[in-house]
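3.2 Worked example (two chains)
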Amino acid sequence: MFDKIVIVGVGLIGGSFALALKQAGAARTVVGMGRSPGVLARAQELGIIDAVAQSPQEAMQGADLVLIAAPVAQTGPILATLLPWLEPHTILTDAGSTKSDVVAAARAVLGGRIAQFVPGHPIAGRESNGPDAALAGLYRGKKTVITALPENPAASVERVALAWRLCGAIIHRLTPEEHDKVFAAVSHLPHLLAYALVDDIAAKPHADLLFQYAASGFRDFTRIAGSSPEMWRDISMANRDALLVELDAYLAQLTKLRAMLAASDAAALEGVYANAQRARRNWIETIEAAEPRPAQESGN
């Protein structure tokens, strides 16, 4: 399907994309680019990429598809590096967790060639980072949101969608603005809360004792705090306005819960818990059950 794919940032997200397409027999050659020669060498050693680009010109020569899988704040500088060597047939896409800022950066850099950039966001991840964390099955049964631009040719959008389908993903479509509002609530806020809780516990004078007794509930709630701090710093700042709206709403909810607890209002507290339990069950049954579960990966 693709003669040459370029991955900018061969870590968990970019590496898993490459492995999935290789496993599907859809990529003749995968070339890696990135900031760290050691990471690129490791990705080649693991068979994630076939070659390391020695320059942007070398990487872009004959490229069919370029995936930018780097922290969102790097999107503009990366595109500026690639632009001089961008061939007319090459499609650019990304895997960033925010979209409005990415689109703005792409428009500023690409100008009249913005039609070649099709924004995307795979909804999958792990707490581990780097090429060693990459899995061929990471996207199997998971959503990928494509936030196509008015300038994008339908064929280019479908080409990007095809690549993700070959990875096993289920395609959804939103505008960049819709995407950022949705994910501020269901992704960006939970990450902020997980980081905040672990940071709060770690700062206590008896942190060692607390962590000694933290069990599965704490581990499950805070799993996402093991994600890349650099990546989530950029996401938080990029989607600041929408995230502040969700954070204020959550603070108001916490204030209500505190009042219930202070007043020993057990019935009201149970009502919140019961409503949350019902909502979560409905989510699992109606949303998650409608999509195929990914096959178990060996070693996980």
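3.2.1 Second chain
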Amino acid sequence: MPTAQLPDTAAPVVSTSPTLAERAAADGVRFLLATFVDLVGKPCSKLVPVESVEMLQTEGVGFAGYAAGLFGQTPADPDVIVLPDPDSYTPLPFVRPGLALVHCDPTVNGAPWPFAPRVILRAVLDRLAAAGYTAQAGGEAEYFLVGRDDDGRIVPADRLDVSSSPCYDARSLTRMYDHLTEVSQALNALGWCNYANDHEDGNGQFEQNFRHADPLTTADRLITFRYLVHVLAERRGMTATFMPKPFTHSTGTGLHLHLSLWDGPTPLFPADVDPRGLGLSPLAYRFVAGLLEHAPALQAVLGPTVNSYKRTAPAAGAHGPSWAPHTVTYGGNDRTHLLRIPEGNRVEVRAGDGAANPYLALAALLAAGLDGVERELDPGDPPNGPGIGVPPTLLHAAQALTGDAVVRGALDAAGGADVSGYYAAAKREEFLTWHSQVTAAEIDQYLTAF
């Protein structure tokens, strides 16, 4: 059939997607949280009345970047202007009637701000597209529900949650029924497909899962999920924490990320024939090899706090294994590996924790995997890996990041700034600030020891 001839002057393409104003009007929204995150992952917002939504859409809204957090600015720098992404529009009537949230892309002087995590992930996804791929990503976000005892110490919010084997316990799960079902219903109302909610391995620890999506959408949803869990827990007098290791003798909090590459609608990771037995294609193995090669530097964004390395320390918790990877290995449906292959359609990265910024984590992981694909790296037969340990401290991870051009390149993907150097320096300072403090444990051990 012959191809139709285009007219000499093609008509302009008109978007049929609803505008932000139309979406807000349809949902009876009165206020929008115009939201972005800093490099740490702190959600920063301004509350915009619906009467100003057109101004928000066309002009954005301004922030003092230095005041927002770790964002590459000084007090003397010009305003950060954030522009909303209408596709990220999220009504939040379960938080407050008439409230919605929209994720925004920060700019400075009219250009995308290279220190903005959402801008960084967009740039890495553009690189992926230039190489001929798209990606899907899923996230499993664990968290604790806590309160304080009479002495001010952090304890599980459910005072009856004291079992030495609490994982999947139906009774503890039921006692938190109201909170968990409120979160679940919110996720399903948003169309995220909450498919499971469970009590995890630590007392007071839970996980609520939702369906995978493209990496930008998944990162947006993880930030929104944290916000939802925080505010809905506070409503019930509890504190939700995504801190990697809030209790010394308990399991830590992970953010397990599932990744796969696609060619349009075609998944590229599964293989009908795989001599290694995991159901992966040669391309998937090369992706795995890239993640393994860059694992030490990746840990600087997957475990971005001093506390993160209490979670990955090899000592077991009160309930047995820590469930966090200690060495850089990959294998099949085995939760002891840094990279687990539960099925041939995806790779699960188990090194991330609750403090990880999902935009930076996904950007760095995709860049590392793409490097393995492009260099045709081979991870060897499973179970296998370089035989090295996960960096033991944040300082070690920051040093590994400084020496890794690929992971640095992911953080610098938006161009025009040494974001990776700025980030690594901030993490070194974070470690040294913590390291300089005299703790109660040191007093106990050393006060009269000599």
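3.3 Remarks
The chain has two domains: 22-113, 124-434.
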